[in-house]
Design goal:
The structure holds two protein chains of two kinds. By secondary structure, chain A is α/β, with parallel strands linked by helices. In chain A, 12% of the residues lie in helices and 20% in strands. The longest helix of chain A is centred in the middle third of the chain and has 11 residues. Chain B has a three-stranded antiparallel beta sheet. In chain B, strands 8-9-10 form a three-stranded antiparallel beta sheet. Classes of the chains: A alpha/beta, B alpha+beta.
């Protein structure tokens, strides 16, 4: 066992050599923790580093091979947060240890991640669906789950302009001032600002 | 399965007598639950012995729809989370995407953001006080006093953004429309000549009220250790004695330039939870006073208006102190026009985690007020 992690440097990699890595993907930050040492690392984050407020717990689906659980912890004394992640293979059952005994506040958020992403938090005493109903099949936030009347993964859907015909919404705007770059002329029937009312009625006599 | 989770509470052995406890459902349609929220509880006489919140009646899978939308299309969609505070909802999302895009925010827009956020906080707390009094049985009269002020703030929102509630006002790098002089004059009139006196009036009218005192003073809510452990944020955490306000603890925007106090109360009872809202209205007025005086002229957006913003790959977590607590957006981009992952961390949803802890041992008549103190909005909670 190495020395406790320093609250100043937040160097989890030195504290847990081999178990924690820095997230090196471009644009990402934080630490990637091995699944089996998550409870140990989270206990150190809470007790040694002082991140007592676990605010956000969520999952991200990275098909085809992995799923990720993202934890955002903060200090109630202020300052920036600490992000740590667990990556698990995307094969059912996707299992991650629950942090509910360290941070009771993750209860509903872990249930939400189970409900929507199908990440099973082992050790959670009451892991039921929370937002979808009991008996719902599948986990909607997984990338391979498609809703009814599914069209495409991303908007705007092609069916919305069948022959390549479409118009911009602000072309129908009589004032034509929705976007400054598209403004053509001043409206004929007067600006809405002409009807501004007096503010005198707001004043309180005292 | 739900009732199974409550089963351990149903029978009590005492002096050889077995006593059944009653399971009741409060909600999903109950005047006090502020939307379609259901609490299944077991009662021992009038005392709550077990409780499970049931959510999801308003669920529309906001996160999934958000993944389908382009980045800009999500901006009006965040209005629909906490529909009282579309301004702060926009703020959190704009922060997250600006972090990803690594763009600055125009100076004037920063001040406009603060002004509209604090106005939004004031009207939210006014509605809170109004509906709290509704829940306590003072039907409509106090809430109409509160709604009168709220209407004036919504008038300003309508004047500057075009909509009273679904404002859709923020853009990446700034805001969509400028506050012109006439509207700024309205804001000044409201802040300097009206709201502070009306807050005092509400304070005078309600705080010393005997019914309010007897219902709320000394009724336990939660202590500081439990509040932190259960990830409670916002006024409920501060009323428990933890001076944690993201505007101070981890300043976003330009909140580090303003001089204000983090409202904090130490008893953690219902009365403190009510009083802290009035404290926060006064602090918001202090921020507004400084922001109105300091606001510079200039452009309102650092970027050119565009339908499609270019967001580099990466992740970002933007969080703001919404009137109900911490509102966070976790956005993952892979360089495409749509976010790969768009997660909302709503304050109402996470605060409800502690409802079970808070309610066990409380009286059922107090439960209505305990729930009201979370200031829940189901649009945000169920998403």
């Amino acid at each position: 066992m190495t020395a406790p992690a320093s609250p100043l440097t937040l160097d989890l990699v030195a504290r847990f050599p081999g178990l924690v890595q820095t997230d090196t993907r471009p644009g990402y930050s934080g630490f990637i923790v091995e699944k089996d040492s998550l409870l140990e690392v989270a206990a150190a984050v809470r007790d040694e580093l002082g991140f007592d407020l676990m605010t956000a717990v969520t999952g991200v689906d990275y098909p085809p091979d992995k799923m990720e659980v993202v934890y955002h912890a903060y200090r109630t004394t202020g300052g920036p947060g600490l992000v740590f992640k667990v990556q698990v293979p995307r094969v059912d059952p996707v299992e991650v240890p629950s942090l509910i005994h360290l941070y009771p506040g993750v209860d509903l958020q872990e249930r939400e991640a189970w409900d929507l992403l199908g990440i099973k938090f082992t050790g959670h005493p009451d892991l039921r669906r929370i937002l979808m109903w009991e008996g719902f099949e599948g986990h909607p936030l997984r990338k391979d789950w498609k809703e009814g009347f599914y069209e495409e993964d991303t908007k705007p859907f092609k069916s919305r302009w069948p022959q390549g015909q479409f118009y911009m919404a602000e072309d129908k705007n009589p004032f034509n001032d929705n976007l400054p770059s598209r403004k053509t002329s001043t409206p004929k029937n007067g600006s809405p600002k002409a009807t501004r009312c007096s503010t005198a009625r707001w004043r309180v006599t005292r | 399965m739900l009732y199974g989770a409550l089963a351990r509470y149903t029978v009590k052995q005492e002096d050889g007598l077995s006593t059944d406890r009653i399971v009741i459902n409060m909600g999903p349609h109950h005047p006090s639950t502020h939307g379609v929220f259901r609490a299944v509880m077991t009662l021992d006489g009038e005392t709550i012995a077990g409780l499970k919140p049931v959510l999801g009646y308003l669920h529309r899978n906001h996160d999934k729809i958000g993944e389908r939308n382009t980045f800009l299309l999500n901006m009006p969609f965040t209005d629909r989370l906490d529909y009282f505070n579309s301004m702060t909802n926009n703020f959190g999302y704009a922060l997250a995407v600006e972090k990803l895009m690594k763009i600055p925010v125009a100076e004037r827009a920063e001040y406009i953001r603060v002004i509209v956020s604090e106005l939004s906080r004031i009207q939210n707390h006014l509605v809170f006080i109004g509906t709290l009094l509704n829940d306590l049985g003072a039907m409509y009269t106090p809430s109409l006093y509160a709604f009168e002020e709220r209407e004036l703030i919504l008038d300003i929102f309508e004047a500057i953004s075009g909509a009273r509630m679904m404002c859709n006002y923020f853009r990446f790098g700034g805001v969509v429309r400028d506050i012109e002089d006439a509207e700024m004059q309205k804001i000044k009139d409201l802040v300097y000549d009206r709201l502070q006196y009306k807050t005092d009036e509400l304070d005078r009218m309600l705080t010393e009220n005997e019914v309010l005192l007897s219902r709320m003073k000394g009724v336990r809510m939660i202590n500081a250790e439990d509040a932190i452990a259960y990830s409670i944020t916002g006024p409920v955490l501060r009323a428990a004695g933890v001076p944690y306000d993201i505007r101070r603890a981890d300043p976003y925007g330009i909140y580090d330039r303003f001089d204000f106090d983090v409202a904090v109360r130490y008893n953690g009872d219902l009365m403190d939870n009510y009083l802290i809202r009035i404290d926060e209205i006064r602090q918001s007025l202090r921020i507004l006073d400084q922001a109105i005086k300091q606001i510079p002229q200039g452009p309102i957006n650092s970027q050119k208006p565009a339908y499609q913003v270019r967001v580099p790959a990466g992740e970002a977590y933007g969080r703001v102190e919404s009137p109900k607590g911490e509102l966070g957006y976790y956005v993952v981009s892979n360089g495409k026009p749509n976010p790969w992952r768009y997660h909302v961390r709503p304050a109402s949803f996470v605060n409800v985690t502690a409802l079970e802890k808070i309610s066990i041992g409380a009286k059922i008549a107090d439960f209505v007020v305990l729930l009201a103190m979370f200031d829940m909005v189901m649009g945000e909670c169920d998403r």
